[in-house]
Amino acid sequence: MAGGSAIRGSRVGAGPMGESERGESAPRVRVVFWCARRHDTAIAFAHDVEVPETWDCPRCGLPAGQDEQNPPPPPRNEPYKTHLAYVRERRTDADGDALLEEALTKLRARRGA
After folding, report:
1. 20 to 30 Å CA-CA from 24: which of 16, 35, 66, 88?
2. In a 3-state reduction of DSSP, which class is residue 97?
3. Cα(101)–Cα(17) distance, rounded to whole angstroms?
4. Residues 38/73, Cβ–Cβ less than 8 Å
């Protein structure tokens, strides 16, 4: 006899798993969400929780809603803005000219020109 296991071919937790071992499952409600690309996603929620209005589609990542005919629109992607673009939002051309002239005046004063 080789080996030291008295119970061969079984593992911890093996055996029939029934409701008696796990306990009863909580009551659930299935909600279907639809994205703008017409993907449907059925999610099971516990019966006593508040169901969210939107859910991220697992296929495409767009927001999905519960109304198949009117899904939420895809989010608008803003293009990358440079530092200069942000500065131009805060300052007018006249402000920029005034700041440039002030900086040039200080530079000329330092150089003694």
Report:
1. 66
2. helix
3. 81
4. no
What size, in residues, is the chain?
Answer: 113
Distance CA 48, CA 86 (A): 47
- Residue 95 is encoded by which pair of tokens? 């402000």
d(CA 85, CA 12): 63
Per-residue model confidence (pLDDT) at position 15: 61
Name beta bridge partners: 70. none
Enter the pTM of the model: 0.53
The rounded distance, in Å, linking the Cα atoms of 45 and 2 is 51
The position carrying tokens 């697992």 is 58
- Choose among 47, 41, 86: nearest CA to 68: 41
CA distance 90 to 87: 5
